[in-house]
Amino acid sequence: MNNYHGKRVLVTGGLGFIGSNLAIRLVRNGAKVTIVDSRVPGCGANLFNIAPVASDVDVIEACVGDVEKFTAPLKEADVVFNLAGEISHSRSMEDPERDLYLNTVTQLRFLLACRVHCAGARILYASTRQVYGKPEYLPVDENHRVQPIDFNGVHKCAATQYHLLLARRGDLDCRVLRLSNVYGPRMALHLPQQGFLGVYICRALNREPIVVYGAGTQLRDPVHVDDVVGAFLSAGSAPDLKSRVFNIGGPHPITLREIAATAARLSARAGEQSPIHELPFPDHLLRMDIGSYFSDPARIERELGSIPQVEFEDGLRDTLSYYRKHGGHYLGLAKQPEPPAATRLAYQAIAR
Amino acid sequence: MNNYHGKRVLVTGGLGFIGSNLAIRLVRNGAKVTIVDSRVPGCGANLFNIAPVASDVDVIEACVGDVEKFTAPLKEADVVFNLAGEISHSRSMEDPERDLYLNTVTQLRFLLACRVHCAGARILYASTRQVYGKPEYLPVDENHRVQPIDFNGVHKCAATQYHLLLARRGDLDCRVLRLSNVYGPRMALHLPQQGFLGVYICRALNREPIVVYGAGTQLRDPVHVDDVVGAFLSAGSAPDLKSRVFNIGGPHPITLREIAATAARLSARAGEQSPIHELPFPDHLLRMDIGSYFSDPARIERELGSIPQVEFEDGLRDTLSYYRKHGGHYLGLAKQPEPPAATRLAYQAIAR
User: What CATH number has the domain bearing residue A32?
Assistant: First the structure.
């Protein structure tokens, strides 16, 4: 997988969890990488994430919608990995307009600028399994109905549709990956709203109780970030994929209870480990629960040859080891700042 | 169909084409009607539309997102017909942020306010067949994949998802109608971007040439506004429909060529009638073309007993007759004003 040597690559959201892992791999593959990241509080950007390649990448601090701040690298880009966005489901329910701005408004502007400046580039967009909502069948393939159950899912869905409609019109070459629960080094562990895996990992690092709501029999297919990076690289180097959507999940579905048990087991240090606490499902979470989810790997295997390699236990061990070494750069960060006043989008006319 | 006697009903977009026809019928059925309409230029609001019931309805000039301007009637509403929005596909391609604001941002705010002020009301949302994009099979049922081909479709889809997710969460009682090509009295004929039926009707009124692009063999199922109003009234009076989606189209699919021929035939006055001009499909329209579309009426017939009654030829005759009498209030309006500078959505924190 080294089709990236000498390629000019733009990574939006490149200081975040997945974006930084991708940027590091790209640099190691010989790509010329420019990162665009707005460092919006709460979205997981962390300069330490790119420490291994800090001298080899350009970092532009800009919202992905403020294209005038990075027109030059955009014009030169051969490939764009578009990972900017907010991923928190629960925060989207608290401040939906913030989520709308970060996931939809800015993506619309970014794509319209791509149409002007880099119509020939390949654009890879990081969407989410969340757009499917509660699965109607398993495994979930790419034709599954889109039926989001939170605002984040609606806004990621709209941004996905922007990519796809511009690709179908022949304006851009966009491909979309719908990611399952991703974990691994460089997750924003200090942000409790970024998903249950991050919470479990935090708890395991501190040997604090790991909570399972309800019976914990729901299935998930956690996917290690290295496998996600591999899938992005494959999708970005394959020709003739315009407007194609791929689901990417982990190698096996496992229950939330098994995930919790693995985290508890791997938490063990000096004879002490995280206990597991079973609690009734709180109503506000139950209403966002999707039951079981796991991805159908058929399309991504067949068309990209992309097969997840990292077993959950191995991946989690690797992740815990990363944070035991570098945790100060994550857990040492200030706890999530007080949420600002709610967002409101104003409507203004501007000169074109 | 008179479950509306004495009911307090809010109609958003009630000065527009469908909203005004609905408001008139509601008043005649004894409902207490409040109209909320922002009169945004280009969206079809026309005070003349409600002339027959002008003294019987309250009209509040407000954007549907500025809920503080109509909190009192919102709190009292038994039923909300939520028809506010922009419908122009082509205009959405010219100024996507304007469309995003008018169809998505304002709807999000409106629904969040409904959750606070009228959680017990029934909410009926006017969505569009446009969200399906290019049909993968015919007739198109409600389970057809959502795959919009223009920004208007993406934004109406997002607003639809807001309604459905809030209904599935149990926060609101929302039902959604996806409308096919609607025609009839009170269309905004002075706005050329509101769809081909309006353009044909204008041409027929003036006995000007009616243009058919390409072979004209694509099917559509134009539905008369009286049938759409009937479907809304049925959907608003049925119990236990939370989060249900219904397609509504006309009684029969007919080709664009037949539609044009009917319009030309009915245009005849004093021995003169519109000629039909056949032109090659312009590229910018071809890229937005969806081929044939017609709705599957099975669900709406079975669950609401709603069956379209108006044959296209009868409906078009009725429509032309309305405009021959009242055309000065439509065609006499200024032509579409110059489009303002492009819209830009700003991001501001507000105190809650």
Answer: 3.40.50.720
